[in-house]
From TrEMBL:
Family: Belongs to the ABC transporter superfamily.
Protein name stated in the entry: ABC-type multidrug transport system, ATPase component
UniProt cross-references to SUPFAM superfamilies, sorted A to Z: P-loop containing nucleoside triphosphate hydrolases (SSF52540)
Domain ABC transporter positions: 3-229
Domain of life: Bacteria
Assigned keywords, A-Z: ATP-binding, Nucleotide-binding, Transport
Keyword S-adenosyl-L-methionine in record: no
GO MF: ATP binding; ATP hydrolysis activity
InterPro entries: AAA+_ATPase, ABC_transporter-like_ATP-bd, P-loop_NTPase
Organismal lineage: Bacteria, Bacillati, Actinomycetota, Actinomycetes, Actinomycetales
Length: 250
């Protein structure tokens, strides 16, 4: 899916969360980063049509979903993982997938076997959600977001609560869906370095940066001390991010 965002603004009452946001997003992994309160979740909820823009517009494959039916049809093409996901503890993993597919009117075309294999839950399809480990619950949630083979995958802090090994497996999962348009909100810079094709930094009520991870790293003005090893890409991106949000001492 190709997405074009033009002059997007969002807020609650008299409070502006962000404004003047413009960007093009296509297939590949786009990482959305920003300090707490920068509006990442609000941006994602606007993108998936849960919230109506205060100003500006979003085109999905060159079309604005201007009617309730158009928005409903669009949502069938979107897989969304909220930051806080919970399911009925009595549901099995397969029950969750059936329910999600049914809600999207896609029960007939959902490929449960494929998505369970993708998230490595094939052997746990009959396990109740309440019996899953934290990492398995997150993978079940990701499976729910992807069960209808969506064109747009939106993941809000998908690695929250995962241990390092689980985060590595999650990044491997992202590689398998790189042909989709994937937008991932994260606060972990290592996820950006490992997975992202493109980075968007939200700060000060707007977009402070958009480009590749290499371009973000190149913005760093921090130099290694004489005789010390040069900063790695992760450290450069961290410093660039801090400079963009105004928290660097440099």
């Amino acid at each position: 899916m190709q997405i074009k965002i033009e002059g997007l603004a969002q807020g609650y009452g008299s409070k502006t969360v962000f404004s003047g946001v413009s960007m093009d997003v296509g297939p590949g992994i786009t990482a959305l980063i920003g300090e707490n309160g920068a509006g990442k979740t609000t941006f994602l909820r606007t993108l998936i049509t849960q919230l109506r823009p205060k100003a500006g517009r979003i085109l999905y494959d060159d079309a604005v979903p201007g009617t309730a039916r158009a928005r409903r049809n669009l949502r069938e093409r979107i897989g969304y993982l909220p930051q806080e996901y919970e399911a009925d503890s009595r549901f099995t993993v397969e029950d969750i997938l059936h329910y999600t597919a049914w809600m999207k009117g896609a029960s007939s075309r959902a490929d449960f076997d494929a998505i369970l294999k993708l998230v490595d839950l094939s052997e746990s399809r009959t396990t109740k959600y309440g019996k899953l480990s934290g990492g398995m619950k997150r993978r079940a949630a990701i499976a729910s977001a992807g069960v209808t083979d969506p064109d747009l995958v939106v993941l809000d802090e998908p690695t929250v609560g995962l241990d390092p090994a689980q985060r590595i497996r999650f990044r491997a999962l992202l590689d398998k869906i790189r042909d989709k348009t994937v937008i991932v909100s994260t606060h972990l810079i290592e996820d950006v370095v490992a997975s992202a094709d493109r980075v968007v930094v939200l700060s000060n009520h707007g977009v402070a940066f958009q480009g590749t991870p290499d371009e973000l790293a190149a913005r760093s003005v921090v130099a290694a001390a004489p005789g010390a090893p040069q900063l790695g890409k992760l450290e450069q991106i961290e410093q660039s991010f801090l400079q963009l949000i105004g928290e660097s001492n440099v």
